[in-house]
Specification:
Layout: H1 8-16, H2 19-25, H3 30-39, H4 44-60, H5 62-75, E1 79-83, H6 86-99, E2 104-107, H7 111-116, H8 118-124, E3 128-131, H9 134-142, H10 158-168, H11 181-198, E4 201-204, E5 208-210, E6 215-220, H12 224-230, E7 234-240, E8 244-245, H13 248-262, E9 270-274, E10 288-294, H14 317-320, H15 323-328, H16 339-350, H17 352-355, H18 367-371, H19 378-391, H20 397-410, H21 413-431, E11 436-437, H22 444-447, E12 452-453, H23 461-473
Parallel strand pairs: 1-10, 2-3, 2-4, 4-7, 5-8, 7-10
Antiparallel strand pairs: 5-6, 6-9, 11-12
Helix pairs in contact: 4-13, 16-19
């Protein structure tokens, strides 16, 4: 597992200077699509409350619903594998594949499989994994991780696809063109058809697990998930424990939120429910059905100030609306989960010592919370991680001293106001009529990338506030 979260600042600097990446990041219409989808559903805000309440109720009774789900899976002839750690989950998947005699494994898009490093683990043991999601397929050819949890190849342009195809598909005719998205789809479909037919095992993620029926649910726009779970002899569902919901009705409520928040669709093109292995009267489906339930740090979040993060339904609305993600892309975050949700989840799973930069990679504009379909207070939890970072002395010494100095003044209002007036006066003298500073001692971190506005006449904020209040009183 390769974690580069401590290098966020360096990653972000490279991303800002990458012209091809910036071109890809500028080409998104998710804001407008989501806004139209939300406007077309008058009860959307009420539905957000419902989604939040469903997830809160489930998390408060997580052990009960997980046991109920497992019992239903087993009653339908399936097998449940309880895995506390990533190592246990990798071992469980490998054992299932070995028992099936698998040489080729097809995979539907699954972020938990990225978290666990399933592909590398299978390859190391002589089993060939083939990604069937279009974005994941091109990333597998390029040996790159996803940069987005919904659109994994969000950081690529059309020319990147063509370049990768020509490098990996060595039998491509020289006159083959890739001008349109359908050209890319046709090429990937041709190559993947053989893998679908050859696979002994299919691995999918799960958007939801339904305790009432023992069903797993996946949503896709390409249909690859259906082929992955119905054609091979063995279907493996790889899911983290917070994906469980109590009932079918709860699941459909959350599905109404998911696609609208993720892609601006009313519903994804394919929404597939799987319940156990093929029955005697079924025309297709797997002979074996396995569910690998993964904890990997999530149960430790229950009952803490980070429990609300487990409500996440992986729609990516937070990153689609985040100005930091929009400027740097997902790879800058250094691990599987980018954007605001990653800035909270990654420290929870890998430790704040490895991911302390991420909760600081936020402007705290609040967009992420305002668009979250289950109302996760992401800025609040990022503040909690900043507090943990400070408590553990993970912040630089200069930053800690500066905060300590500010805290001393903040506890002494008279001294604070005096210092503010003196500082304002000094800046005014240094400005000498200029509108901004291009350099200022102690402010190099700011002026390195942008000008620092010079103070305007009129005094400190408190002075202006006092005058305004007196004026209003008159």
């Amino acid at each position: 597992m390769h974690i580069t979260s401590p290098a966020f600042k360096e990653n972000a600097a490279r991303a800002l200077g990458d012209a091809r990446l910036q071109k890809a990041l500028s080409r998104t219409g998710s804001h407008a699509k989501r806004a139209r989808a939300v406007a077309a559903l008058p009860e959307f805000e009420r539905l957000r409350d419902t989604g939040r309440d469903i997830k809160n109720h489930t998390l408060a009774n997580l052990d009960f619903y997980l046991e109920a789900y497992a019992a239903k899976v087993e009653a339908a002839g399936g097998h449940v594998h309880w895995c506390s750690t990533a190592d246990e989950a990798r071992a469980a998947v490998l054992e299932i594949c070995r028992k099936a005699g698998a040489r080729t494994v097809t995979k539907g898009k699954s972020m938990i499989s990225e978290e666990l490093g399933i592909n590398d683990h299978l390859e190391a043991h002589g089993i060939r994994p083939v990604e069937t999601d279009l974005g994941e397929y091109i990333l597998q050819l390029r040996r790159e991780p996803p940069s987005h949890i919904i659109g994994p190849a969000f950081h690529l342009n059309r020319e990147d696809w063509e370049e990768s195809f020509r490098r990996s598909h060595t039998d491509l005719p020289a006159d083959r063109v890739f001008h349109e998205r359908r050209d890319i789809l046709a090429e990937a479909r041709t190559r993947l058809r053989e893998a679908f037919l050859a696979a002994d095992v299919g691995i999918t993620g799960a958007n939801f697990l339904i305790a009432e029926t023992g069903s797993s649910v996946i949503v896709t726009n390409e249909g690859n998930g259906d082929l992955t779970q119905t054609l091979p002899r063995v279907h493996v569902v790889l899911a983290s424990i917070e994906k469980v919901v109590p009932t079918l009705e709860d699941c459909t409520s959350l599905l109404r939120l998911l696609a609208r928040s993720a892609t601006g669709q009313d519903f994804s093109v394919y929404t597939t429910f799987s319940t156990g292995a093929r029955r005697p009267a079924d025309l297709d489906g797997p002979e074996e059905y396995h569910v690998v339930l993964v904890d990997n740090g999530r149960s430790a979040m229950v009952g803490t100030e980070f429990q609300e993060m487990l409500r996440c339904i992986r729609c990516a609305a937070c990153m689609n609306h985040c100005p930091v993600y929009g400027a740097t892309g997902g790879h800058a975050y250094g691990w599987v989960y980018p954007g605001p949700m990653g800035s909270v989840l990654t420290p929870s799973l890998v430790g704040v010592d490895k991911a302390a930069h991420l909760p600081n990679a936020s402007s705290f504009c609040g967009r992420c919370e305002s668009v979250c379909p289950v109302k996760i207070p992401l800025p609040k939890m990022m503040r909690h991680w900043r507090e943990r970072e400070f408590e553990r002395h993970l912040t630089p010494a200069t930053q800690r001293r500066a905060l300590g100095l500010w805290a001393w003044f903040a506890r002494r209002p008279g001294a604070y106001r005096l210092a503010a007036r003196l500082g304002l006066g000094a800046l005014g003298l240094l400005a000498r009529g200029r509108g901004a500073f291009t350099w200022l001692p102690g402010a190099g971190g700011w002026t390195k990338g942008r000008d620092l506005p010079a103070p305007e006449p009129g005094g400190t904020f408190m002075d202006r506030y006092a005058r305004q209040k007196r004026g209003a009183g008159r």
